[in-house]
Amino acid sequence: MKKKGSRKKTDSKSRKVKPPESIADALSMHEEIVRLNKALEKSDDSIESLEERVQDIEIHMNLLTRLLTTLCIEKFGMRIGVLKRLIKRIEKEAIRDSQILHLESLYSLPSNASKRKNNSSSRPSPKDDPWDDIS
């Protein structure tokens, strides 16, 4: 029977110890970490700046909305119910237009304006194009 003490000595000797990384590798990793930290700080600053700009735009839009509402009611003599219906119709149209633009961007279709410009000089479309039925 072997003793436990002798067994530990052979186990520790048989294990291979990896040599430490070279200094150049350590320096390059350190430089990369410093570069990433600087990029992170820069992106944090730009995010804060963008958040401030969005907040300023929201305030500006709120003021313009109030001004337009006041003008419509007091100066143009619109009734509140008519104004509400007009706003709902405009919202529906804006949603529809944004959905169309989103689908066009997904399928990389040219927008309606570029279709009109290129209509005379455009290539003939294939006869079995499913998009012809949609539009």
In brief:
The protein is elongated, with a radius of gyration of 34 Å. Helices cover 76% and strands 0% of the residues.
Write the layout of secondary structure elements.
Layout: H1 4-14, H2 23-75, H3 80-107, H4 112-117, H5 130-134
Low confidence ranges:
none
| Helix run count | 5
Distance between the termini: 89 Å
Pattern of helices and strands? HHHHH
Radius of gyration: 34 Å
Total DSSP E strands: 0
Helix content: over 70%
**Morphology call:** elongated
Structural class: mainly alpha
Strand content: under 5%
Main sheet characteristics = none
Mean pLDDT: 78
Oligomer: single chain
Question: Key terms for this structure?
Answer:
135 residues, mainly alpha, 0% strand
Explain what the structure shows.
By secondary structure, the protein is mainly α. Among the domains are: 25-78; 79-114. 76% of the residues lie in helices and 0% in strands. The chain has five helices and no strands. The protein has helices spanning 4-14, 23-75, 80-107, 112-117, 130-134. The protein is elongated and about 80 Å long. The chain starts with a helix and ends with a helix. The mean pLDDT is 78.
